[in-house]
Design a protein that fits this description.
This protein is mainly α and 313 residues long. Helices cover 78% and strands 0% of the residues. It has one domain (42-297).
């Protein structure tokens, strides 16, 4: 199916304004699905997600080390416990147990020293996963990255640090938000109401923060800035696909498969690698959706320029 099905009405109003990605999505969703599938095959997204999961696996543990150092410097109690709780809810049990043991084995009281050579080394190692993600997003968006390798790596370090700080901020909000809101509402007798409301809103708030993080990554990582800023269909798809894949993998492992019996002591690592693969695949497919929507906007402008040139000739 041609990409022209995505942009039938753009010719009638050329470049009057940049249509929103949601407007384009509503015009021809079936054509978009067909085009995205073609691009997934052309860009070898499945293979790139596999390569991305390899780098993310080796980046995960240094990232946890650096994250533990950041959390240890904050006076708010319960941040690490909340992080472990979210990992337990998202990851397959064996993979979550592996990360939980890793966090438990970190040296207590060493967080300040970690924010020196050890933390910088961990941050540099963790940025390898972001470097791979930047390269994959450039392929998805059909962009040749003109930046030298050292600038790409520094960008990866900065984005990795940004993701860490964003995660820490989200954890602080999720941990300190409820007691603060309850303290403010108690004089009016609304403390119990706030408690119940937070229990209902905790996961939607966490999902919203994750969605914002995905959107920021899509906006800052590629060599060419996207046409749209903010929440896009691709970012929303990536979040929903990631949550759905995580839930499906967790249910599959709990009820249908026993990776520990099949793979022995490395079963937890295999599960973590599989979860990282599904996570990377969700991110790349979401980026493909946004890239195809951008092509639908750019193509009429190119066609209009060509037609003007033909008339002038």
């Amino acid at each position: 199916m041609s990409a022209r099905a995505l942009r039938p009405s753009l010719r009638a109003n050329p470049a009057a304004h940049l249509p929103s990605p949601w407007e384009l999505l509503a015009r021809a969703p079936a054509a978009l699905v067909a085009r995205v599938w073609e691009e997934i095959q052309a860009d070898e997204v499945l293979d790139r997600a596999a390569a991305l999961s390899y780098y993310l696996l080796f980046a995960a543990f240094p990232a946890l080390l650096f994250l533990a150092a950041l959390l240890g410097l904050l006076p708010a109690p319960g941040l690490m416990e909340r992080l472990v709780g979210y990992l337990d809810r998202v990851l397959p049990p064996d993979a979550a147990s592996l990360l939980r043991r890793t966090l438990a084995e970190l040296p207590r009281g060493a967080t300040r020293s970690l924010l020196s050579v050890g933390a910088l080394t961990a941050l540099w190692s963790a940025s390898a996963g972001m470097t791979s993600l930047i390269a994959a997003l450039n392929v998805v968006r059909d962009v040749e990255d003109p930046r030298p390798w050292w600038l790409r790596r520094l960008l990866a370090v900065a984005l990795t640090l940004g993701v860490m700080l964003f995660l820490v901020t989200a954890l602080v909000l999720l941990v300190l938000g409820p007691p603060l809101a309850q303290a403010l509402a108690s004089p009016a007798g609304l403390g119990p109401v706030v408690t119940v409301a937070w229990r209902l809103l905790e996961w939607p708030v966490a999902a919203g923060l994750a969605l914002a993080g995905i959107a920021l990554t899509y906006g800052l990582a590629p060599a060419r800035r996207p046409a749209w800023r903010g929440i896009t269909p691709g970012a929303l798809f990536a979040l929903l696909a990631w949550l759905g894949a995580s839930a499906a993998l967790r249910a599959y492992v709990q009820h249908l498969a026993d990776y520990h019996a099949t793979y022995g002591s490395i079963g937890a690592v295999i599960l973590l690698l599989l979860w990282l693969y599904l996570s990377g695949l969700a991110l790349l497919v979401g980026a493909e959706i946004d890239a195809e929507l951008e092509r639908a906007v750019a193509a009429p402008a190119r066609d209009g320029t060509a037609e003007s040139g033909e008339r002038a000739a």
